[in-house]
Amino acid sequence: MAQIFDIFFLEALLNGVLLGGLLALLSVGLNLVFGVVEVIWVCYAELIMASMYCIWWLHAEAHWPLWAAFGAGLGSGAVLGMVLHQFIIRPVLSAEPINQLLVTGGVLFFLQALATVLFGIDYRNMGIRLPSLPVGEMQFSVARLVTFIVAVAAIVATWMFLRRSFMGTAIRAISQDRGVMPLLGVDPGRVYLLTSAIGGLLVGLAACLLVLQYDVHPAIGLTFGPMIFLICVLGGLGNLLGGMAAAFLFAQFISLGGFFLQVEWGQVIAFVFFILVMFWRPQGLFARPA
Amino acid sequence: MNSRGNSPSMYTVLFGVGVIALAVVPMLGLSGYVLHLLITALLWSFIYTCWSLMGRVGLVSFGHGAFIGVGAYTVVLAWNFLGWSPWLTAGLAVLLAVALAAAVGWPCFRFGIVGHYFAIVTLALAEIVRLVIVALRDWTGGTLGITPKPLPEGASAAWTLQFSDKRVWFYAALAMWLIGLAVWRWVDRSIHRSALEAISEDEQAAASIGINVTRAKMGITVLSAGLTCLGGVLYALYQRYINPDTVSGLTVSLQVVFGVIAGGMSVLLGPTVGAVLLLAMSEGLRLALGNDVRGIDLLIYGALLVLFIMYLPRGIVGEALRRRPPPGPPAKVEVGGEGEGEGEGRRVTSHP
């Protein structure tokens, strides 16, 4: 009996790690944009939903091959990110932070409604069913494994880009001191736009991974959107590593909470934990030194 | 600031006439649909007004859905499972909401959680309430929602607050709304408002002149939460159907914020105008476009919200008042009954 218990516990633990990889990827895009532009994309999860619909439609309705649909999904994310920045966020860059939050909140309503108008409220899926992989007595979904591997690879790639490339250096510089960079001749507007495009690209990638596991419907963003903000804030807004650590922590709460109780209780515990940590470290667990 | 003292001002008279006109409305034999719209407008106006108590002094909460949810679910569950009258459990619900607000508010204020971070913590609170409702699905019906049990034989509708006559609900909502406005006005004229405003401008400076920052913020938060919870109670009893997403979801909490911003939060009737506007917009679009194209009303609605925040960040009423020729003797009335917040035009100058 004890043996079986342990195995299932281990399975939940490992599934938590797999979920953590996905959440970490989701947190990186939002954090990157916040670190540079200092605006939280409240509609972040809805951008992912939009890309998911794009992939689903191209593949299931327009009968594009899977790879082309995924490519278009990536591109749609980047375009969405740039459009969002250029037309919605740029005009309110000097407005009060709360208005910046609300503007992107309005986009959330807009995208949800747009999805409803175009595709109705039905659950759509790609019709791809990846098998599950038995490891000993445990079962792991291949979709989750693929998601985890791609997410980790993407995070590493983003990291390399930020560390090694010229543009990445500019992005990091702006996020460290936005006052000095313009004096040195860097056009912050271009860096903002580029960062939004990269954030959007990560949105597109997340969409590609999510359509493998979940059906898409207009309210899907609400199921994980709030969680992503909390993860980013918990890790310290703008802090990529902190966000990733927080993502793995949250994923364990959800996975183990789901194992012992129900998934919702796992989330409740994670959110309560979040609030408690806020009291203790208001700038997040791994705040950047101010 | 207050240019009062000269006999009942034009605004007060207009407001009084407006309220009397409203009170007569149900006698006109309007259709149930019109009455329903009015009740909904009054109910949300009340909730929006309660939110703006905090919002106008910089405590922007993204989590008022938590208090609506606590109010709605407490009375419905207590009635369905224990048969307790909402008259008793409404008090219990308010206590719960106040306790919740205090438990989260106190550490927030004590440890200086402000701005973005405060908004996100309140968002987490609303999500927690929503998830707890979903997780307790054996009692609450989970995401499917719940309906209060119908009245047993011979029970009095007044005791169980289950009226079939919409007119009763109309007067109940009207009374709540007036109470909300009265509280808003009381806070507006009290010394607390000055203290809270000082805090929202510069917390440390306020503390240095002897304002107890934590206590001032706690007071307004608890007041706002308790009243919002009552709004939730009334909503549940009137609608007779609640589900976690319609009372506590992120969209509800965001909608409250939007409504108040659209109307203007530093003016007495701003939140009301916002609530009426949002309702008129969604109902109007729905009627104009018909039901065949699902969601197109919400689409335009979302776009308008974005445009509002981008171009009218002070809200309609706030903007109208700001454009009024400053100080001097009140020359002319621009916005009919909305003028209650006279002199408010100058205090929105904190926005550059």
Q: How does this model look, in words?
A:
The complex is a heterodimer of chains A (290) and B (352). Chain A is an all-alpha fold and 290 residues long. Chain A has a single domain, classed as ABC transporter involved in vitamin B12 uptake, BtuC (Orthogonal Bundle). Helix content of chain A is 76%, strand content 3%. Chain A is built from 11 helices and 2 strands, in the order H-H-H-H-E-E-H-H-H-H-H-H-H. A two-stranded antiparallel sheet of chain A has the order 1-2. Chain A starts with a helix and ends in a 10-residue tail after the last helix. The mean pLDDT of chain A is 83. Chain B has 352 residues and is an all-alpha fold. Chain B has one domain: ABC transporter involved in vitamin B12 uptake, BtuC. Chain B is built from 16 helices and no strands. In chain B, helix 2 runs parallel beside helix 8, helix 3 packs across helix 11 and helix 8 packs antiparallel against helix 11. Chain B is globular, with a radius of gyration of 20 Å. The N terminus and C terminus of chain B are likely disordered. At the A-B interface, helix 4, helix 9 and helix 11 of A face helix 4, helix 5, helix 13 and helix 15 of B.
Write the layout of secondary structure elements.
The complex is a heterodimer of chains A (290) and B (352).
Chain A: H1 2-37, H2 44-61, H3 66-89, H4 97-119, E1 132-135, E2 138-141, H5 142-164, H6 166-176, H7 180-183, H8 188-213, H9 220-235, H10 240-260, H11 263-280
Antiparallel strand pairs in A: 1-2
Helix pairs in contact in A: 1-5, 1-8, 1-9, 1-10, 2-3, 2-4, 2-8, 2-9, 3-8, 5-6, 5-8, 6-8, 9-10, 9-11, 10-11
Chain B: H1 10-24, H2 32-55, H3 64-82, H4 86-110, H5 115-135, H6 137-140, H7 157-160, H8 166-189, H9 191-201, H10 203-208, H11 213-239, H12 244-248, H13 250-263, H14 270-289, H15 296-311, H16 316-323
